[in-house]
Amino acid sequence: MKVDPTRIRSARLAAGLSRDRLALRARTSARNIARWEDGNNAPRSEALAAIAEATGQDVAYFFSNGDESETDEEDADLDAALLVALKNWRVGHLNHEEAAA
Question: What does each C-alpha distance from 96 to 15, 17, 30, 50 come to in angstroms?
Fold first, then answer.
């Protein structure tokens, strides 16, 4: 499965966020957001999890529903990896907030 770059932009706009604001919330740069939205690069799982949380979307939303046929085992592996990435991002985010306080 591939990340659909148009969905990153759609989610950002639906959440009422500028690229700068999404970058701040996802702890990345606006330049990375632009690259991901333009399809020049794809975000890593940790960044995608951060974007999902910042925009209020489920991580699965960002993947295309094209003709790719993944096996159930591959889907389960991807789901597990994304959950770990989201957990790690949240822990890092909370630690960052505690340090700032």
Answer: 23, 21, 19, 14
